């Protein structure tokens, strides 16, 4: 089955097998597709909640020489956080910095949410403070995440 799809239709996958078939076709193409095309496929898998699959595919992409960008790194961080691997999410942040890929508000908000979901509120607040110190402007989602985390811990005391 060939998946010469319009890239705009990647989000319409209804099963993981079709997405994996397309991924395998994409990695066999020469020259390889851009990270933008791979990212569209990863987003489709995230929408299906196949976080572990995304982590695996990102690993394969790296082994095959497909370079990540800030968006694909954010997807990977999100998947680790969804899987409860906040430490792995921070490892991706370190990798981003080493490669010269600048994190953005989405990067920090994803990590803050991951920390809050693991009831690591003080670490989330520290990361929030660090984000502000570095000049990042938090959006409403970041504030809401921090507030929800603080309220949750107060309700469980």
TrEMBL record:
The keyword Repeat applies. Keywords: Repeat. PPR repeats lie at residues 69-103, 104-138. Gene3D superfamilies: Tetratricopeptide repeat domain (1.25.40.10). Pfam families: PPR, PPR_2. It comes from Gossypium aridum (American cotton). Belongs to the PPR family. P subfamily. This is Pentatricopeptide repeat-containing protein. InterPro entries: PPR_rpt, TPR-like_helical_dom_sf. The keyword Repeat applies.
């Amino acid at each position: 089955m060939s998946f010469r799809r319009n890239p705009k239709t990647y989000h319409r996958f209804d099963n993981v097998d079709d997405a994996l078939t397309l991924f395998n076709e994409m990695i066999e193409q020469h020259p390889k597709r851009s990270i933008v095309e791979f990212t569209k496929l990863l987003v489709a898998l995230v929408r299906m909640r196949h976080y572990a699959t995304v982590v695996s595919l990102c690993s394969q992409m790296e082994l095959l020489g497909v370079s990540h960008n800030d968006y694909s790194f954010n997807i990977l961080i999100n998947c680790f956080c969804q899987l409860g691997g906040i430490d792995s999410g921070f490892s991706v942040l370190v990798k981003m910095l080493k490669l010269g890929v600048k994190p953005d508000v989405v990067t920090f908000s994803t990590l803050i949410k991951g920390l809050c979901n693991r009831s690591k509120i003080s670490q989330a607040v520290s990361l929030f403070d660090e984000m502000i110190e570095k000049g990042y402007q938090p959006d409403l989602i970041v504030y809401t995440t921090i507030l929800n985390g603080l309220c949750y811990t107060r309700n469980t005391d």
